Amino acid sequence: MPSSRAKRRIQRQRSELKNTAYEIFIGLLSILSIANLVLMYLFHAEESLQLILSVMNALFSAIFLADFIYRISTAPSASGYFFRGFGWADLLASLPFAELKVLRLFRVLRVIRLLRELGLRTIWRTLIHDRANSTLMTLLLLGVLVLQFGSISILAVEEDAEGANITSASDAIWYTIVTISTVGYGDQYPVTNPGRLIGALIIIVGVGIFGTFTGYLANLFLGPQKAAEAADAALEPETAPADATVDDVAGGAVAAPVDTGTTAAGDADAVVDETEPVAAREAAGAASPAELSARLEALIAQSEETAAELRRLLADAAPGR
């Protein structure tokens, strides 16, 4: 059996864990951002590549800063997360300084540690069960990858082509953003077959991302409304007389032969039918099956007594008596 200290540590780690798909998304973005730092140092002479990587690192910094704000605002202990949970490293790594971006390794290590507590089987079941968030995070990650590597690829194949209009890093980034958003201004376009193939892949990914995002927003805003309507429909009471009592039924049954002249069998059926709303209402408030059975037996016995009284009155009122 784990000790109380170990239990507290596990509970604290699980409280730090956000949505599983979100944690994986942040962890993979952290790895990609660190890989970009390596690329920037390896290809420091390539100005176009440097510009694309700088734009991506600025995007990563904004995402990681938002992640830090989200974590510290939802942490059970803000000071505990900041000092003991390496929140300070998350904050410094999100600042636009290349020297501090190596601190994103702490984010990767924390995500690995937290996910290890769940186990691969639990992670897989969670991702399958929460398909909406898993699909959304997957497509967002795919969009980030396409934005970076699509810009690098389209620039590599179009930059030196004859008649090309995508000749700089800003042209490549602008073309990729416009294409992935499915806007397609047409001011920048590929002129080579490899470039058109890359553009087609970017279009397909963009349609998937924005289609999924639209469905996610629709489910986010309409889901609670549908759930509330279903709950209201389930709680709506059935149509039934609210003021019927056994005494009213009995009194109406005795007066029925004089007013309507119906037969004894018909009056007996009417008595039973009128007692059904009473039984249904009493059954709804029954505390146990035994009490429900006793109340039903009492109602049936009273209905039989009323039917016998009706038959006796009809027999006394018959001609020749």
Q: Which short descriptors sum up this protein?
A:
elongated; 3 domains; mainly alpha; Helix Hairpins; 13 helices
Commentary on this structure:
The structure is a single chain. This protein is mainly α. The chain has 3 domains: 1-129, no CATH class; 131-236, Helix Hairpins (Orthogonal Bundle); 246-317. It is built from 13 helices and no strands. The chain has helices spanning 4-16, 20-42, 47-74, 78-84, 87-93, 104-118, 120-129, 131-158, 169-180, 193-235, 246-260, 264-284, 289-317. It is elongated. The relative contact order is 0.07.
Mean pLDDT: 76
Number of domains: 3
Shape: elongated
Spans of at least 5 consecutive residues whose pLDDT stays below 50 are 238-276, 278-284
Helix content: over 70%
* Secondary structural class: mainly alpha
- Distance between the first and last residues' Cα: 90 Å
- In terms of DSSP E residues, the strand content is under 5%
Number of distinct beta strands: 0
Number of helices: 13
Main β-sheet: number of strands, strand sense, barrel status?
Answer: none
Helix and strand pattern: HHHHHHHHHHHHH
Radius of gyration over alpha carbons? Answer: 37 Å
